[in-house]
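pinging the channel bc i need a second pair of eyes. not urgent but kinda urgent?? the chain im working w is below, pasted from the shared doc
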Amino acid sequence: MHNLTFLFLVSCSLISTSVSAQDGDLLAHAKKEKTVSLYTSMEARESRLIADSFQQRYPFLTVDIARLSSNRLLQRIDTEHRAGRNLFDLVITSGLEVRYLIKSGLIGQYVSPEAKAFFADSKDPQGRWVDVYSSLRVFAYNTKLISRDAAPKQYDDLLSPRWKGQIGLPSKEYSWFATAMRALGRDGAKFMDGLGKQKPNYRPSHVLVLQLIAAGEFNLGLVYQHQLERYKKLAAPVELAPLPFATKNIHPMALAVQPPHANAAKLFINFVLSKETQTMVRGFGRAVSRADIAQDEINKFKVVVEEIELADRMNEIVADYEKYLD
């Protein structure tokens, strides 16, 4: 049986059939709406499993999923808005895109009763979004080429002459760049200048960087932690570099400002943010932001959240990035 299918079946058995008073009120109105329209950049199989679990609990509701890349999702929502059509109820995508939608006046407010269980830095104090899952950006190295003792342990270690031409970076990693600069404080600019002088190998995606590290194309590089864990399970010669912090790229869920199925959408939000469903998401290998779910691997380093407000000064960030990298 496929691992994700198994997780889906297990999660369905875990999710309680009891309904809170608030959910009961939503339920009565949601029955008339029949549908929830979800726009997301989440992996198709993961979003489908969540939707199927929701539909099993509420068989009178259907989840219609539009799955697109983050950029295409923004374009679609913008096009529909310009045409005067409000078609989506909910969006789950990266934090920067959610910020753009907020600035465009396309996101509403809803404070789910489940939100109180989430870390303060992973939810909006004004009730416009809560993180559904996170991608941790970490450095990994090839264990055949680098011993555990020789692996970098501080960010300054990446500036050693031995790594020149041996570091892989995903191209145009603006949010990682800005967040790492903030985490490094006064040493941020000096570090990025030194990293650029290391002549990094730029590739279009994190997974491609990871594949090339595993193949020995270069020694180490910036990757997604959940992809690293998957490769380790496949016996690829890759390991986490024990650096002091990792950056956390959140993927919030937000309610449309004019959702066509408002009650069903709020019911879906409560369901997705519940401990049971977040445990299911955790089972996909994702990091989550509920404080009451154990995640031993993130205790290996400090986690620095990439603030969605970075979107407000992206032109400035890109200009700084291009001074040092790419």
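so The longest strand covers residues 130-142. and The two ends are 43 Å apart (CA to CA). — does that match what u expected or am i reading it wrong
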